[in-house]
Amino acid sequence: MAKNYYDVLGVSKTATADDIKKAFRKLSKQYHPDINKAADANEKFKEINEAYETLSDPKKRQDYDRLQDSPFGRGGYTGGGSRTYTGGSPFGDATADDFGGFGGFGDFSDIFSDFFGGAGGGFSQQATRPRKGDDIEYRVTLDFLEAALGKTMSLTLNGKTLSVNIPAGIDEGQKVRLAGQGHPGNNGGPAGDVIISCHIRPSATFRRDGLNIESDVTIRFSEAALGTKATVKTLTSQVSLNIPAGTQSGAKLRLRGKGIQKKNGEQGDHFVVVRVKTPQQLTDREKELFEELSRLEK
Description:
By secondary structure, the protein is of the alpha+beta class. The chain has three domains: 5-127, Orthogonal Bundle (Helix Hairpins), CATH 1.10.287; 136-200, HSP40/DNAj peptide-binding domain (Sandwich), CATH 2.60.260; 207-297, Sandwich (HSP40/DNAj peptide-binding domain), CATH 2.60.260.20. Helices cover 30% and strands 23% of the residues. The protein has helices spanning 5-9, 17-31, 41-55, 58-69, 108-116, 120-127, 144-149, 221-226, 284-297; strands at residues 136-142, 151-157, 160-166, 175-178, 194-200, 207-209, 212-220, 228-233, 238-243, 252-255, 270-277. The strands form four sheets. The protein has a four-stranded mixed β-sheet with strand order 6-7-11-10. Helix 2 (17-31) packs antiparallel against helix 3. It is elongated and about 100 Å long. Residues 4-68 form the J domain. This is J domain-containing protein. It comes from Caryophanon tenue. Keywords: Chaperone, DNA replication, Metal-binding, Repeat, Stress response, Zinc, Zinc-finger. Residues 56-86 are annotated as: Disordered.
């Protein structure tokens, strides 16, 4: 006896498309032949894919529900009766006399056509056409430097270890696609893809604006007035930065080409934001000097 598709996926007839998709993902992973070695796993996996192929398609699901609710034998499409439709009339060798008071329908293929919008053979071809497998979505968390500089990482899914190349400069929420590594296709269709969504941890040192990055350097009041040199950490090294005399707090100094660099040749800059630290406690001598400076500025 053919099985009811809703029972196969463990959902109610009123299940939403999202409920059906979630149930399919859970069951397809549970019964995937690469993971589940039980004797009936392969057959269960085929049933799950067959049920999902129909219930995930709004038109097919509508047709399926109409035939299930029909008084003419619920085995016409799948479960609930003793017949399974394989083409031609869904009522086997039955004649109009078998249905007593249901006269006036003419050829029973017209009834099937009413359910499926065409002849039985056409539906059979549609149901068995190649269909791409579902994608698998995965989320990874990267450090700021890993996202900025790129990284090759290993990922294990469905018993397979995949090598994932995270390109330099990937941004928050961007995705990496591994073609053909998702769920297997149906009826000879291609496998789906693995889609990796990237989340990036904030950095205590760097901030990002497109391909440009920013960091801060703190100098003393006297250094801002007289000028100085400061050691600045970049994405890949440390450099000595010349800070001109008279630099104001909040000023940005550019390190050209020291930002994020992509393989296509695009590159950003590193902007160093100067933070001038104002002294909070002064010695008597320092106070005298600042008072002298104040008089000179008038």
